[in-house]
Amino acid sequence: MLLARLLRSSLLVGFLLGLTACNASAAGRAPIPPANADVALAAQPGKAKAVFAGGCFWGTQSVFERVKGVIDTTAGYAGGSAATATYDQVTTETTGHAESVEVVYDPSKITYGQLLRIFFSVAHDPTELNRQGPDVGTSYRSAIFYINDEQKRIAQAYIAQLDAAKAFPRPIVTEVTPLKGFYRAEDYHQDYALHNPDNPYILVCDRPKIEALKQQFPELFTQYKGH
Asked: How many structural domains comprise the chain?
Protein backbone atom coordinates (compact mmCIF):
# COMPACT_ATOMS: atom_id res chain seq x y z
CA MET A 1 0.00 0.00 0.00
CA LEU A 2 2.97 2.36 -0.26
CA LEU A 3 1.81 2.96 -3.79
CA ALA A 4 -1.73 3.49 -2.58
CA ARG A 5 -0.66 6.61 -0.70
CA LEU A 6 0.13 8.23 -4.04
CA LEU A 7 -3.06 7.29 -5.83
CA ARG A 8 -4.59 10.73 -5.60
CA SER A 9 -2.19 11.61 -8.40
CA SER A 10 -3.99 11.44 -11.75
CA LEU A 11 -0.74 10.33 -13.39
CA LEU A 12 -0.80 7.10 -11.42
CA VAL A 13 -4.47 6.45 -12.12
CA GLY A 14 -3.73 5.81 -15.78
CA PHE A 15 -0.88 3.52 -14.81
CA LEU A 16 -3.06 1.46 -12.51
CA LEU A 17 -5.83 1.16 -15.05
CA GLY A 18 -3.37 -0.72 -17.22
CA LEU A 19 -2.44 -3.21 -14.54
CA THR A 20 -3.49 -6.81 -14.99
CA ALA A 21 -1.99 -8.05 -11.75
CA CYS A 22 -4.73 -6.90 -9.37
CA ASN A 23 -6.71 -10.14 -9.75
CA ALA A 24 -9.41 -8.47 -11.87
CA SER A 25 -9.38 -11.55 -14.10
CA ALA A 26 -10.95 -13.55 -11.28
CA ALA A 27 -14.30 -12.04 -12.18
CA GLY A 28 -14.46 -14.03 -15.38
CA ARG A 29 -13.03 -17.25 -14.00
CA ALA A 30 -14.85 -20.42 -13.03
CA PRO A 31 -14.73 -21.29 -9.32
CA ILE A 32 -11.96 -23.61 -8.20
CA PRO A 33 -13.01 -26.98 -6.75
CA PRO A 34 -14.22 -27.15 -3.13
CA ALA A 35 -11.95 -28.60 -0.47
CA ASN A 36 -12.14 -32.38 -0.28
CA ALA A 37 -10.83 -32.45 3.29
CA ASP A 38 -13.35 -29.99 4.72
CA VAL A 39 -15.39 -30.48 7.88
CA ALA A 40 -19.19 -30.61 8.05
CA LEU A 41 -21.26 -27.64 9.16
CA ALA A 42 -21.58 -27.47 12.93
CA ALA A 43 -24.84 -28.63 14.47
CA GLN A 44 -25.20 -25.49 16.59
CA PRO A 45 -24.46 -21.81 15.92
CA GLY A 46 -21.22 -20.53 17.34
CA LYS A 47 -18.12 -18.50 16.64
CA ALA A 48 -14.76 -19.54 15.17
CA LYS A 49 -11.80 -17.56 13.89
CA ALA A 50 -9.61 -17.74 10.82
CA VAL A 51 -6.71 -15.49 9.81
CA PHE A 52 -5.65 -14.95 6.20
CA ALA A 53 -3.00 -12.79 4.54
CA GLY A 54 -3.42 -12.04 0.85
CA GLY A 55 -1.77 -8.76 -0.06
CA CYS A 56 -3.23 -5.41 0.96
CA PHE A 57 -5.71 -6.08 3.75
CA TRP A 58 -8.16 -3.57 2.31
CA GLY A 59 -9.13 -5.99 -0.44
CA THR A 60 -9.03 -9.14 1.66
CA GLN A 61 -11.35 -7.59 4.23
CA SER A 62 -13.69 -6.25 1.53
CA VAL A 63 -14.22 -9.81 0.31
CA PHE A 64 -14.74 -11.63 3.60
CA GLU A 65 -17.06 -9.01 5.09
CA ARG A 66 -19.46 -9.83 2.24
CA VAL A 67 -19.60 -13.58 2.88
CA LYS A 68 -22.71 -15.12 4.44
CA GLY A 69 -21.85 -16.78 7.72
CA VAL A 70 -19.08 -14.29 8.50
CA ILE A 71 -19.89 -12.40 11.67
CA ASP A 72 -17.03 -9.91 11.79
CA THR A 73 -13.74 -9.03 10.10
CA THR A 74 -10.74 -7.06 11.31
CA ALA A 75 -7.77 -5.79 9.32
CA GLY A 76 -4.49 -6.26 11.14
CA TYR A 77 -1.03 -7.74 11.26
CA ALA A 78 0.20 -11.27 11.90
CA GLY A 79 3.57 -12.96 11.75
CA GLY A 80 5.58 -10.51 13.86
CA SER A 81 5.54 -9.14 17.37
CA ALA A 82 3.10 -6.81 19.09
CA ALA A 83 5.86 -4.22 19.47
CA THR A 84 6.18 -3.85 15.69
CA ALA A 85 2.50 -4.07 14.73
CA THR A 86 2.02 -0.57 13.36
CA TYR A 87 1.54 0.41 9.73
CA ASP A 88 4.63 2.60 9.61
CA GLN A 89 6.78 -0.23 10.95
CA VAL A 90 5.21 -3.03 8.89
CA THR A 91 5.72 -1.13 5.64
CA THR A 92 9.48 -1.12 6.25
CA GLU A 93 9.32 -4.86 5.40
CA THR A 94 11.52 -5.68 8.40
CA THR A 95 9.01 -6.78 11.07
CA GLY A 96 7.98 -10.21 9.79
CA HIS A 97 4.31 -9.17 9.74
CA ALA A 98 1.91 -9.74 6.88
CA GLU A 99 -1.11 -7.54 6.34
CA SER A 100 -3.86 -9.92 7.45
CA VAL A 101 -7.56 -10.20 8.15
CA GLU A 102 -9.13 -11.94 11.11
CA VAL A 103 -12.43 -13.53 10.13
CA VAL A 104 -14.97 -14.42 12.81
CA TYR A 105 -17.53 -16.83 11.38
CA ASP A 106 -20.40 -19.10 12.38
CA PRO A 107 -19.31 -22.71 11.67
CA SER A 108 -22.94 -23.76 11.45
CA LYS A 109 -23.36 -21.53 8.38
CA ILE A 110 -19.99 -21.73 6.62
CA THR A 111 -17.03 -24.08 6.93
CA TYR A 112 -13.32 -23.36 7.12
CA GLY A 113 -12.90 -25.10 3.78
CA GLN A 114 -15.43 -22.77 2.17
CA LEU A 115 -13.55 -19.77 3.53
CA LEU A 116 -10.36 -21.18 2.04
CA ARG A 117 -12.06 -21.63 -1.32
CA ILE A 118 -13.01 -17.94 -1.33
CA PHE A 119 -9.52 -16.97 -0.16
CA PHE A 120 -7.87 -18.83 -3.02
CA SER A 121 -10.51 -18.01 -5.64
CA VAL A 122 -11.20 -14.30 -5.37
CA ALA A 123 -9.47 -12.69 -2.37
CA HIS A 124 -5.98 -12.80 -3.91
CA ASP A 125 -3.62 -14.62 -6.27
CA PRO A 126 -2.01 -17.46 -4.28
CA THR A 127 0.72 -17.97 -6.88
CA GLU A 128 2.37 -14.57 -6.41
CA LEU A 129 5.37 -14.69 -4.08
CA ASN A 130 5.74 -11.82 -1.63
CA ARG A 131 3.51 -9.47 -3.62
CA GLN A 132 0.00 -8.80 -4.84
CA GLY A 133 -0.46 -6.60 -7.88
CA PRO A 134 1.40 -3.31 -7.36
CA ASP A 135 2.26 -4.09 -3.72
CA VAL A 136 5.63 -5.78 -3.27
CA GLY A 137 7.24 -7.15 -0.11
CA THR A 138 6.88 -9.87 2.49
CA SER A 139 4.12 -7.90 4.25
CA TYR A 140 1.98 -8.63 1.18
CA ARG A 141 2.70 -12.35 1.13
CA SER A 142 0.09 -15.06 0.83
CA ALA A 143 -0.32 -16.85 4.16
CA ILE A 144 -2.76 -18.88 6.19
CA PHE A 145 -2.22 -18.46 9.93
CA TYR A 146 -3.85 -21.53 11.40
CA ILE A 147 -5.31 -21.51 14.89
CA ASN A 148 -5.50 -25.27 15.48
CA ASP A 149 -4.39 -28.57 13.96
CA GLU A 150 -7.68 -29.01 12.11
CA GLN A 151 -7.20 -25.74 10.24
CA LYS A 152 -3.62 -26.75 9.43
CA ARG A 153 -4.74 -30.12 8.09
CA ILE A 154 -7.51 -28.69 5.93
CA ALA A 155 -5.32 -25.89 4.53
CA GLN A 156 -2.38 -28.13 3.66
CA ALA A 157 -4.65 -30.76 2.09
CA TYR A 158 -6.46 -28.13 0.02
CA ILE A 159 -3.24 -26.63 -1.32
CA ALA A 160 -2.06 -30.11 -2.32
CA GLN A 161 -5.44 -30.80 -3.94
CA LEU A 162 -5.41 -27.57 -5.96
CA ASP A 163 -1.81 -28.02 -7.08
CA ALA A 164 -2.49 -31.61 -8.14
CA ALA A 165 -5.53 -30.45 -10.12
CA LYS A 166 -3.52 -27.60 -11.68
CA ALA A 167 -6.25 -25.21 -10.62
CA PHE A 168 -3.84 -22.33 -11.24
CA PRO A 169 -1.28 -21.86 -14.03
CA ARG A 170 1.52 -21.74 -11.44
CA PRO A 171 2.13 -23.53 -8.12
CA ILE A 172 0.56 -22.09 -4.97
CA VAL A 173 3.10 -20.29 -2.77
CA THR A 174 0.82 -19.69 0.23
CA GLU A 175 2.50 -20.22 3.59
CA VAL A 176 0.67 -22.32 6.18
CA THR A 177 1.99 -21.24 9.56
CA PRO A 178 0.75 -21.17 13.17
CA LEU A 179 -0.85 -17.98 14.43
CA LYS A 180 1.27 -16.51 17.21
CA GLY A 181 -0.64 -13.27 17.49
CA PHE A 182 -3.04 -11.05 15.59
CA TYR A 183 -2.84 -7.30 16.07
CA ARG A 184 -5.61 -4.94 15.00
CA ALA A 185 -4.58 -2.33 12.45
CA GLU A 186 -5.20 1.38 12.82
CA ASP A 187 -8.81 2.56 12.68
CA TYR A 188 -8.47 4.20 9.27
CA HIS A 189 -7.66 0.81 7.71
CA GLN A 190 -10.86 -0.82 8.95
CA ASP A 191 -13.51 -1.20 6.21
CA TYR A 192 -11.29 0.99 4.03
CA ALA A 193 -12.76 -0.17 0.72
CA LEU A 194 -16.28 0.47 1.99
CA HIS A 195 -15.50 4.00 3.16
CA ASN A 196 -13.35 4.94 0.16
CA PRO A 197 -15.18 3.42 -2.83
CA ASP A 198 -13.83 5.96 -5.32
CA ASN A 199 -10.19 5.56 -4.38
CA PRO A 200 -8.46 4.50 -7.64
CA TYR A 201 -6.63 1.67 -5.88
CA ILE A 202 -9.95 0.29 -4.60
CA LEU A 203 -11.60 0.65 -8.01
CA VAL A 204 -8.81 -1.16 -9.85
CA CYS A 205 -7.60 -3.73 -7.33
CA ASP A 206 -10.44 -4.44 -4.92
CA ARG A 207 -13.82 -3.84 -6.55
CA PRO A 208 -13.18 -6.68 -9.06
CA LYS A 209 -12.73 -9.06 -6.13
CA ILE A 210 -16.17 -8.19 -4.80
CA GLU A 211 -17.66 -8.71 -8.25
CA ALA A 212 -15.87 -12.04 -8.54
CA LEU A 213 -17.31 -13.13 -5.18
CA LYS A 214 -20.79 -12.20 -6.38
CA GLN A 215 -20.34 -14.06 -9.69
CA GLN A 216 -18.61 -17.19 -8.45
CA PHE A 217 -20.37 -17.65 -5.12
CA PRO A 218 -23.80 -16.02 -5.37
CA GLU A 219 -25.16 -18.30 -2.66
CA LEU A 220 -22.55 -16.97 -0.23
CA PHE A 221 -22.62 -13.31 -1.22
CA THR A 222 -24.25 -10.71 1.00
CA GLN A 223 -24.29 -6.93 0.95
CA TYR A 224 -22.25 -5.15 3.59
CA LYS A 225 -22.97 -1.69 4.98
CA GLY A 226 -20.43 -1.50 7.75
CA HIS A 227 -20.74 -1.48 11.50
From this structure: 1
pTM: 0.90
Question: What is the dihedral sign for C-alpha 168, 139, 56, 65?
Answer: positive
- CATH label of the domain that carries residue 59: 3.30.1060.10
In a domain, 7, yes or no: no
Going residue by residue through the chain, which has 227 residues, state the pLDDT in tens, using 9 for 90 and above: 444 444 433 334 444 444 545 654 455 567 899 999 999 999 999 999 999 999 999 999 999 999 999 999 999 999 999 999 999 999 999 999 999 999 999 999 999 999 999 999 999 999 999 999 999 999 999 999 999 999 999 999 999 999 999 999 999 999 999 999 999 999 999 999 999 999 999 999 999 999 999 999 999 999 998 86
Label the pairing between strands 131-132 and 142-146. Answer: unpaired
> Per the domain annotation, does 18 fall within a domain?
no
- Strand 142-146 with 175-178, pairing: parallel
What are the residue numbers of the active site? 56
- The residue segments making up the domain with residue 165 are 32-195
